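Appendix C: a fully annotated inverse folding record. The material below is reproduced so that readers can follow the format used throughout the book. The structure is listed first as tokens, followed by the designed sequence.
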């Protein structure tokens, strides 16, 4: 007990003196879409169900992380809303001392039906992936239909107060970059916060990424042509977006640029996979098994010790901008971005 109390007194800091306050938790590797930049059309070999952390196990890891300074949790997938009774996990997390923000990243297909229950359980805000405003193009990018359901999910999130509602648009040259201006116009009439994300490479999208990549600098130049843009604080959250707004509008636009301008020096996050492995960099291969010691009865002190030890191998930065292969990850669905 004395050791555990001492551990609580010192926050989680990596070897480069970056405080780690943000944990992204993948609750499933499965998804109901097959977006071209995210995963293969045929899907992937899914993690066997017995290897997936249950909600109590996830809560136990978050409780340990919260005891040493993690304050923000984001639930991801795959698509997290396909996991049954997700509001029960949200309620478990909301009851953990020290956690002051619970967010959700979703493709939005199931959000309209679940927004109210999630909000009641303690969810604070949502990010919705939306790469196009055209039905046929949505089906082409996602390899599944469903644009109307995503738009209904965004409306439900706004109605339930799950804000700021952020829309994540992966902009791809020759695919959807002609809609940049239409997305920006949305922020003039709605309290949505659109972030244009550079398409990032994984093993199964290398050709697409090479041909479709658009620099955030080009995006900002095109956004600026629509009217005077002013830098504004990032709407509540822990993300790396550079955020701007037009005069007198309710929303914002922003760019996330892992290649053109990486943000590694301010990295404050680690990721937990659905099968209980701690991933220390999105594009790195450092994985720490938390499930095995947890299921062996190690308890909070053991998880805290592993979290602290992991900080010694968290890399300083990724190397994507240098053209190096940085990860064996096949698809973003494996860890939720």
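Designed amino acids, in order:
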């Amino acid at each position: 007990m004395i050791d555990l109390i001492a551990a609580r007194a010192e926050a989680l800091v990596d070897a480069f003196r970056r405080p780690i306050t943000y944990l992204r938790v993948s609750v499933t590797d499965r998804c109901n879409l097959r977006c071209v930049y995210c995963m293969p059309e045929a899907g992937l070999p899914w993690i066997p169900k017995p290897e997936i952390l249950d909600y109590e196990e996830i809560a136990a890891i978050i409780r340990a992380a919260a005891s040493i300074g993690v304050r923000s949790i984001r639930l991801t997938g795959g698509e997290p809303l396909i996991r049954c009774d997700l509001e029960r996990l949200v309620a478990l997390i909301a009851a953990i001392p020290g956690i002051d923000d619970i967010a959700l990243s979703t493709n939005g297909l199931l959000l309209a039906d679940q927004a109210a229950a999630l909000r009641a359980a303690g969810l604070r805000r949502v990010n919705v992936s939306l790469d196009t405003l055209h039905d046929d193009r949505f089906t082409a990018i996602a390899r599944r239909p469903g644009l109307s359901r995503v738009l209904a999910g965004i409306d439900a999130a706004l109605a339930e107060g799950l804000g700021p509602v952020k829309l994540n648009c992966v902009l791809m040259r020759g695919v959807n970059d002609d809609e940049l201006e239409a997305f920006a116009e949305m922020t003039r009439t709605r309290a949505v916060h659109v972030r244009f994300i550079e398409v990032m490479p994984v093993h199964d999208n290398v050709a697409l990424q090479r041909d479709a990549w658009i620099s955030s600098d080009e995006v900002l130049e095109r956004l600026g042509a629509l009217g005077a843009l002013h830098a504004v604080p990032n709407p509540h959250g822990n993300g790396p977006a550079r955020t701007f707004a037009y005069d007198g509008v309710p929303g914002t636009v922003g760019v996330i640029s892992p290649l053109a301008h990486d943000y590694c020096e301010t990295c404050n996050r680690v990721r937990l996979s659905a099968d209980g492995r701690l991933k220390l960099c999105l594009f790195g291969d450092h994985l720490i098994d938390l499930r095995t010691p947890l299921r062996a009865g190690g308890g909070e002190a053991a998880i805290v010790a592993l979290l602290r030890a992991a900080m010694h191998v968290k890399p300083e930065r990724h190397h994507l901008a240098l053209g190096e292969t940085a990860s064996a990850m096949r698809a973003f669905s494996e860890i939720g971005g």
